[in-house]
């Protein structure tokens, strides 16, 4: 049986990030066909070294996990590079804004002057694990494929070019600053294949790396929802209302800073019984509004999460940065209408192609669209019928796994 390895910064039980769950589902789904390993760091929670895993080899759900301790290069030594590493990235972002970056990449796919400053920056980040990179170099002959999840980590940026001829990249890219670093070009142009989640993600990367973008295709990822917990108990435990708008995910400033006032302004203008329920880990930087119309549950079990999703009136995703949004697919599968940030082309395309949701462009648009969804049961019913068919057609495991196996076997 061939041996393959997924490479990601964090991996293990109770790590609920989107990229980590994505990687876990793919790794476990490939166990019937390959000897599957994960090469990762000892990090369990960012910025909490006291919670780290032990370095070494372990196993979880049948997958062998090899953990390497992060050892970033002394940041003081590379302070000059940390001041310079943004320059080339800003130039590339500006060219992208002018729609010139694709043409510039045609002429100069790799900007070596930028890489000279960016590599020390990546090597000085808190997640840099040189032992992991050395392991790939010394053991690359043992593996049929290395599958790198998340493009912006030191593991992907530096590791994917160690054995590019047998490296697959699942970039999970969105139009954020890290995409425009020069050091990304070798990764995006030299790997054996890039497995995108959506067409919007692929077009974004083509606009950055031009014709030198490595061979690629749309692979995507399926979803797995735990059995539903008994609803009356969940409803009582978290004091959930009969009608609620659900936000699911990390409750951080970047994610929900505008959502909370948007929702309260909608309530002030239109009234109604619906409340906003936020499910997920809460970051201290968030200002909690003292309002009976906003409820925070904190972490819930997977079974409780399934119940909360399936009884929502509307699901909302305010993030402008998504490469797929598994949570959005879970809502569609559960027949829940969606309202998403129109700045995310990925989520906007999901709604446009499926007919299972609406998107908003600003606060006023949010209020109008949310009121429309909450006040029109027939519209919600029509949308709810379209979600499962879309997920089944594009993100069913019986479609995803054969695509990924074909890529692995092609190496």
TrEMBL record:
PANTHER family linked to this entry: GLYCOSYLTRANSFERASE, SPORE COAT PROTEIN SA
Glycosyl transferase family domain ranges (all copies): 241-387
Pfam families listed in its UniProt record: Glycos_transf_1 (PF00534)
UniProt keyword annotation of Transferase present: yes
Molecular function terms, GO-annotated: glycosyltransferase activity
Protein name per Swiss-Prot or TrEMBL: Glycosyltransferase
Source superkingdom: Bacteria
Keyword presence, Transferase: yes
Organism the protein comes from: Alistipes shahii WAL 8301
Entry keywords, A to Z: Transferase
């Amino acid at each position: 049986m061939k041996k393959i390895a997924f490479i990601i910064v964090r991996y293990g039980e109770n790590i609920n990030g989107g990229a980590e769950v994505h990687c876990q589902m793919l790794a476990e789904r490939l166990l019937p066909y390959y000897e599957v390993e994960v090469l990762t760091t000892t990090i369990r929670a960012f910025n909490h070294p006291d919670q780290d895993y032990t370095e070494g080899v372990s196993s979880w759900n049948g997958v062998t996990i090899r953990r390497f301790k992060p050892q970033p290069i002394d940041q003081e030594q590379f302070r000059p590079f940390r001041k310079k590493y943004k320059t080339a990235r800003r130039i590339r972002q500006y060219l992208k804004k002018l729609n010139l970056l694709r043409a510039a990449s045609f002429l100069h796919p790799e900007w070596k002057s930028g890489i000279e400053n960016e590599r020390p920056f990546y090597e000085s980040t808190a997640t840099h694990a040189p032992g992991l990179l050395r392991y790939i170099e010394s053991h690359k002959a043992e593996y049929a494929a290395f599958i790198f999840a998340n493009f912006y980590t030191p593991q992907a940026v530096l590791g994917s070019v160690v054995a590019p001829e047998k490296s697959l990249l699942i970039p999970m890219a969105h139009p954020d600053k890290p995409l425009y670093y020069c050091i990304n070009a070798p990764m995006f142009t030299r790997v054996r294949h890039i497995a995108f989640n959506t067409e919007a993600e692929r077009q974004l990367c083509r606009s950055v790396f031009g014709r030198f973008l490595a061979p690629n295709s749309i692979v995507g990822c399926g979803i797995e929802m735990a059995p539903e917990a008994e609803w009356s108990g969940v409803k009582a435990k978290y004091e959930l209302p009969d009608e609620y708008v659900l936000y699911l995910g990390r409750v951080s400033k970047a994610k929900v800073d505008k959502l909370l006032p948007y929702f309260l302004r909608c309530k002030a203008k239109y009234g109604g019984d619906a409340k906003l329920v936020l499910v997920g880990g809460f970051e201290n930087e968030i200002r909690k509004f003292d309002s009976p119309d906003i409820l925070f549950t904190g972490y819930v079990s997977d079974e409780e999460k399934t119940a909360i999703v399936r009884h929502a009136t509307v699901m909302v995703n305010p993030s402008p940065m998504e490469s797929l949004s598994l949570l959005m697919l879970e809502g569609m599968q559960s027949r829940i209408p969606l309202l998403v940030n129109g700045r995310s082309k990925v989520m906007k395309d999901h709604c446009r192609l499926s007919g299972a949701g609406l998107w908003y462009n600003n606060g006023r648009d949010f209020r109008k669209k949310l009121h429309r969804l909450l006040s029109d049961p027939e519209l919600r019913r029509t949308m709810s019928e379209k979600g499962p068919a879309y997920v089944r057609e594009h993100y069913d495991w019986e479609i995803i796994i054969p695509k990924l196996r074909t890529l692995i076997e092609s190496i």
